[in-house]
Write a structure and sequence with these properties.
Strand order of the largest sheet: 1-2-3-4
Radius of gyration: 18 Å
Number of strands: 16
Strand content: 35-45%
Shape: globular
Amino acid sequence: QRHAGEPGSRLELSFAYSYRAAECRGNAHLLTSGELAFPAARLVVVYSPATHRQRFYGEHAAGVRCLARHPTGAALASGAGASAASPNAPPIHVWDPETLRTAAAFGGRTYAAGVAALAFDRTGELLAAIGADAHQTVGLWEWRTGSLVGVAAGSPAPLFALAFSPADGTLATAGVRCLRLWTRDALGGPLICRDA
């Protein structure tokens, strides 16, 4: 119901003329559709160069800092910074770039300070994350259920990147004077680290 004095129409975003590069990692991805996905504040913009049109994933409560593309291209993971207005909001979202529907959202307790980097493993079943906290917390998630299957302090120095080996699934993290390799034992136990 409209109140007296309200405008008769709503504003709707049609084009974002920005790109977030500061404090961001792995933040631009070419999709199987030929579109480009990149962060702009709380949004992930899905831009079509063919039509010069944009669509927007806008479910985050804070600025998006990182993206990861699922190996099949059927999903994107986006990680946000901390939200003062919504401190319990999940910073990690996995969503369909075609429909813009959220498939999973998680990580609020583990990553209260936000997320700095994300990477899918070669199977696409696991998602690794680096926290923006003082310990650069490394977490391994079964993203479809939001289950944390491994977590460890990553480094006292900033970590900037992570990637899975396509050969054996070893997770590598890299940062200031730090390159570490992470594995799990055969029973799926905790993350085990060794300096590279």
